[in-house]
Amino acid sequence: MTTEQGHRVAEQKLSKRATCLLAPFDVPFVVRRALRCIRPDLFICVETELWPALLMEIHRAGVKMSLVNGRMSERSFGRYLRIKGLMQQLLAGFSTVAVIGPEDRDRFAALGVAKECIRVSGNSKYTHAAVDRAQMRSRYRQRLGLEDATVFICGSTRTGEEELLVPVYERLGRECGKQLVWIIAPRHLERIPALKSFFAHFPLETTLLSDCADGKCMADIILVDTMGELADLYATGDFNFCGGSLVGQGGHNIMEIVRWGLPVYFGPHMEDFCDAVELVVPTGAGFQVADAGALAGVLSTHLGNRELYEQVCRAAEDLSALQCKAVAQQAEMVRGLLNMQSAGC
Questions:
Q1: For residue range 188-206, what is the model confidence (pLDDT) as tens digits?
Q2: CATH classification code of 4-120
Q3: CATH topology for the 133-322 domain
Q4: Based on CB atoms within 10 Å of each CB, which residue in 104, 283, 321, 322 is the most buried?
Q5: SS (H, E, C) the chain
């Protein structure tokens, strides 16, 4: 840990099982003193906290080193290439490197890490338990009486987004050829009355999720007025949009959608979840758009091309499966190093 806030969180969560210390100042003699006191068997670097003195001194001390959840942006890679010689020295101590995606693997390899030492394991930050999409989808569709309807879900929406999304819903409705149900889950439930008032001006039937039971809900628009259901409700959707992204609110967790093996759609404002964006867009599991008009265009394309839609669903399924395995794969890698250390290798 390198910040006081991080240290406090670690103490709160781990103090009963581990000693939590701040990282030493990145000065050689300070690092050497810390190593003499701690005498580590293994050093695990999370993501890309590449402190030069720390890495060099740990390597010199003969401590096994592993990097997990490794990620390297294109921008960082460009900077590191300018000091490639130094980076090769810093990375030379790592016996194993687990990276988030193929592009990270290629960038670490270009900086001198042997390819046989690198493993693409996904992002452990977004690891989740295995889920049964068909079961969850059936559960909600029966509850809501959706049958064969096309379902458009907009989750964690913020003020002003619904107005932007109305034309998107209207275009999908014209093109889908059957009932289109729009499920809206505002980020803050206190906005429900305002949304009910807003949609009262449209020739559409609007209801609340809490009023839907026993398959008797036949509304055009369903407002989610309950807590804790959105993450599972996404399994019901055919087209799932993640809110807070068309307006400047930093976005929300798009991996809640991908975990169901479904593509995710979102706007340009994803500052709080940049790492997730870098995960889903290159794999074809997520689609970032500039505005509501572009969103309507992408959804229209997927609606009209079943083969393409199934292809992006498979991309989401593959990414979801990779995330499920991330922690287990990284733990296995670390366990192997510990076994080597115990055997004196």
A1: 999 999 999 999 999 999 9
A2: 3.40.50.11720
A3: Rossmann fold (3.40.50)
A4: 104
A5: CCCHHHHHHHHHHHCCCCCCCCCCCCCHHHHHHHHHHHCCCEEEEECCCCCHHHHHHHHHCCCEEEEEEECCCHHHHHHHHCCHHHHHHHHCCEEEEEECCHHHHHHHHHCCCCHHHEEECCCHHHCCCCCCHHHHHHHHHHHHCCCCCEEEEEEEECCCHHHHHHHHHHHHHHHHCCCEEEEEEECCHHHHHHHHHHHCCCCCCEEEHHHCCCCCCCCCEEECCCCCCHHHHHHHCCEEEECCCCCCCCCCCCHHHHCCCCCEEECCCCHHHHHHHHHHHHHCCEEECCCHHHHHHHHHHHHHCHHHHHHHHHHHHHHHHHHHHHHHHHHHHHHHHHHHHHCCC
